[in-house]
Amino acid sequence: MNRLLLAIIIFVASSVAIEVNAQSAQVSGIVLQENDGHILLRTNDNRRFPLRAATEEAAAALNKLHARDYLFGTGEFTDHGEVLLTTVDYVGLQGLVGRWKDQSGAILDFSNFKKVQIRAATSSQQIAFNYSISPADADGWKVFFSNNSVASLANLTLRERKAQLQFFDSNTGQPNAKIQMNKLDP
């Protein structure tokens, strides 16, 4: 099985929240930062919970998130009114939302945490993709792009107003196209 297919299977499997025991629960909401700590703002009821990581993997992902990023994972709501986070399954990066221009002049419009429209520099036609982001290595994220005709996996590195997407060949799992982007919107 090639590495790309294996990465996609692992990504999809980690994105499905399964309650492993009676204390585990789905955890989702907007991440806020207060007093050198993270707060989870649960979007369905606007309740706020101090957020702590229970695993090294959850801590690494949580430490890469910024204020107003979205988090979906698994954790425990403790008796002390906090969330003890065990996994980060996928995220929405507020810093990625907006319009970006790549080195070819193409415009990538990440309209929200789930959708992106891409318009080549030489065309007025736009191609729409759904995307989802999950934790990856120390400074990056895995991004899965899909629409009715294609699916792609890329590593994302995001640094303020600059980003890089390193795509992988779906047959070999080897890196192929690399896109450097600059943010157009404030």
Structural commentary:
The structure is a single chain. With 186 residues, this protein is mainly β. The chain has two domains: 3-92, Nucleic acid-binding proteins (OB fold (Dihydrolipoamide Acetyltransferase, E2P)); 95-183, Quinohemoprotein amine dehydrogenase alpha subunit, domain 2 (Lipocalin), CATH 2.40.128. It contains two helices and 13 strands. The protein has helices at 3-15, 56-64, and strands at residues 25-34, 37-41, 48-53, 70-77, 83-92, 98-102, 107-110, 115-119, 126-135, 141-146, 151-159, 162-168, 175-183. An eight-stranded antiparallel β-barrel has the order 6-7-8-9-10-11-12-13. A five-stranded mixed barrel has the order 1-2-3-5-4. 26% of the residues are buried.
Helix and strand run: HEEEHEEEEEEEEEE
Distance between the termini: 42 Å
Number of helices: 2
CATH superfamily of the largest domain: Nucleic acid-binding proteins
List the uncertain runs. 14-22
Number of strands: 13
Mean pLDDT, rounded to whole units?
89
